[in-house]
Amino acid sequence: MxxxxxxxxxxxxxxxxxxxARRRLAANGIKILKTSSLYRTEPVGLSGQPWFLNQAVLVExxxxxxxxxxxxxxxxxxxxxxxxxxxxxxxxxxxxLLAGDTIVDTPSLTVPHARLAERNxxxxxxxxxxxxxxxxxLKKTIQTLRGASSDRALVEKAPSALRPDSATAKTRPRSG
Length: 176
Ligand code: AMP
Fold this sequence. Notes:
176 residues; Alpha-Beta Plaits; 5 helices; 30% helix; globular; binds adenosine monophosphate
């Protein structure tokens, strides 16, 4: 089964945290098929905290939605996430955004993710890798939902990582 996941982090070293989360998911048998760019996103809800780095990922696994949620929560806690209020700063957040046409509506799990259509930090990365995926309840594509979003929070593509030689270039002793 294919799932779109949303990854987010705004503590310590967000870029590295997202990479660690992807590696841990892969080490648990989750096949990562596609990754969006990384996006810097303005915090929603609680102000005064660092901007987030967010990414959408397409994965394939035989796990059920509940098994995948349990794995995501295990990865979050292994990476040091302390349970806290929604929208609070976090080392890593792993959300199940979409599971094809599957609809889940239980106290512990809602798929498609309940706030998917209201959040630019989810819609923008997801629209990059799944513009034509259809939200099975709203019956609209992600691209359409992104265009219709009334969320004003800023989302911008993160600069690509420093090239390995750009850090050393400054410290290399001058010759001659
Ligand atoms: P959050 O603080 O956004 O990580 O929310 C965590 C809580 O949301 C957990 O208690 C999950 O059981 C619940 N939850 C409901 N639906 C989802 C979903 N689609 N993906 C991840 N967590 C979910």
